[in-house]
Amino acid sequence: MAEGIADRPPARRPGGRSARVRAQILAATAELVARDGVAGFRYEEVAELAGVHKTSVYRNWPDREELVAEALLRYAEDLASVADTGDLHRDLVDFLLALAGGLETPFGQTLEQAVLPAHQSPTVRQALSRILDQRVAALRRRVDTAVDRGELPPVDSSFLGEMISGPVHLIVNRGQRAFARTDAERVVGVVLAGIRATAPHD
Asked: In which residue ranges does the UniProt entry place its DNA-binding region annotation (predicted)?
């Protein structure tokens, strides 16, 4: 055995504890902001919920708005994805169900809270803009593919996205019932039928 190997410090695995701590802090932030809003949460509560020391939060995010913005961006991926199975109706239905499920999570509630004017700090507003841009871009790619395949006439993908996602936000935010697959089927069916029926004919 080579001399001195036993005296070497253990190699640090990529990510390791630091990555776990950051993930715990971001998850705790999303949950607390969903409960108390951007202005209402405290670093002490973030640390307690994340199971870390308060200094770990301050050291990584000395600015609370930066912490909120990163939490928003970290947990936004699932809300900004649209599958491509070759069946546009099915893909949009699944997208709406994923959106509804995401909005019911602490992160989704965080996103809805952050949209309120009282929480429109420049940093948070930029994060929201990036999340919305990602969602629009993903939907545009799927719609453009459908148009290229002849599944759909040329259409403004942003308008289509607003038409199908609006009812999801309305039903979820009311909190009176869950947004179900039957809801998604009806919304997508009506919107796609309307787009096809009103498309200009050559």
From this structure: 42-61
CATH 1.10.357.10 fits 77-198, yes or no: yes
Q: Among 43-57, 69-83, 135-149, name the one with the lowest average pLDDT.
A: 69-83
CATH 1.10.357.10 domain residues, the chain? 77-198
- Contact between 138 and 82 (Cβ < 8 Å): yes
DSSP output for 57-105: HHHH-SSHHHHHHHHHHHT-GGGG----SS-HHHHHHHHHHHHHHHHTS
Quick one: which H or E segment has residue 29?
helix 16-36
Residue 31's Cβ-count burial label (10 Å; 0-12, 13-18, 19+) is buried
132: helix, strand or coil:
helix
